[in-house]
Design brief:
51% helix, alpha/beta, 3-stranded mixed beta sheet, 13 helices
């Protein structure tokens, strides 16, 4: 069993911390907002008073944070983890922050870093079915693959930043596809086609996997929030920053972002699941 510090106890971070604790690991947790660690502490986790305090004895430090500024503050701000993380530890950065933030952190830390963002939501964590996209040194990955397997299926993709790149690409592709589907469902609605017939027809084509996975939400039967629309829009902003650095035009994703902005701003759907973009566009 490993001594693990989890920094960031949002919905995903809390679920990941709980699964690691239930697997028998020695867990320390920290969160910027007080009060989110109560159940974990009651179950046996230690509360870190600061990021530095939380990582002081850790073999593995897991970060699950909102964005690059949050990662910067937690690692390098006052009482940041970088000031106390043991030289023998590994940082496993599981947030969606992009390759530039990963490179910046890795350059300043004295410990190995794996970028390991995830595909999936809280139910995926609870059942150990996350897909974990990992970049970094292969030997470091192999050393921690068993630990990551507690949370899901780790996939090694290549050098540092590879996981961060593929997470941004996945999220941008997902959001752009949902926006396109929402607009096209608005068209079939106007044409008088029933949603069951439309989904059956789409399922026969290249969107089969998406339709199978999303059918309850596309029909309005599942309105649970797994991934907030505001966070999906944040990830689009990150991929635009990276694309600008690489000199690549993402015009389709930019159009999707504009439709998300309509749903987040005037319609106030930022805290809804990102699938809410579809009924918004159908209306």
């Amino acid at each position: 069993m490993s001594a693990i510090a989890v920094l960031g106890l949002g919905a995903m971070g809390s679920a990941m911390a709980a699964r690691l604790l239930n697997a028998g690991h020695d867990l320390t947790v920290w969160n910027r907002t007080p009060g989110r660690d109560g159940e974990l502490v009651s179950a046996g986790a230690r509360r870190g008073e600061t990021p530095a305090d939380a990582v002081r004895d850790a073999e593995v430090v897991v970060t699950m944070l909102t964005d690059p500024p949050a990662l910067e503050a937690v690692l390098f701000g006052p009482d940041g983890a970088s000031s106390a993380i043991p030289d023998t530890a590994t940082l496993i950065e599981m947030s969606t922050v992009g390759p530039t933030a990963i490179a910046s952190a890795a350059e300043r830390l004295s410990v190995p870093v794996l970028d390991a963002p995830v595909l999936g939501s809280v139910p995926s964590v609870e059942t150990g079915k996350l897909v974990i996209l990992v970049g970094g040194d292969r030997e470091v990955f192999e050393r921690h693959a068993e630990l990551l397997s507690v949370l899901g299926t780790p996939i090694y993709l290549g050098p540092s930043g590879s996981g961060a790149w593929l997470k941004l690409v996945n999220n941008a592709a997902s959001t752009a596809t949902l926006v396109a589907l929402g607009e096209l469902l608005a068209l079939t609605d106007r044409a008088g086609l029933g949603i069951d017939s439309v989904l059956q027809g789409l399922e026969a084509g290249p969107l089969a996997s998406l339709i199978q996975r999303w059918r309850p939400r596309l029909k309005g039967e599942d309105q649970a929030s797994y991934f907030r629309l505001a966070l999906a829009r944040k990830d689009l902003a990150l991929v635009f920053d990276e694309a600008e650095r690489e000199g690549v035009d993402l015009s389709v994703a930019e159009t999707a972002a504009a439709r998300c902005d309509e749903a987040i701003g005037p319609a106030g759907l930022g805290d809804e699941d990102f699938g809410a973009i579809i009924p918004f566009l159908r209306r």
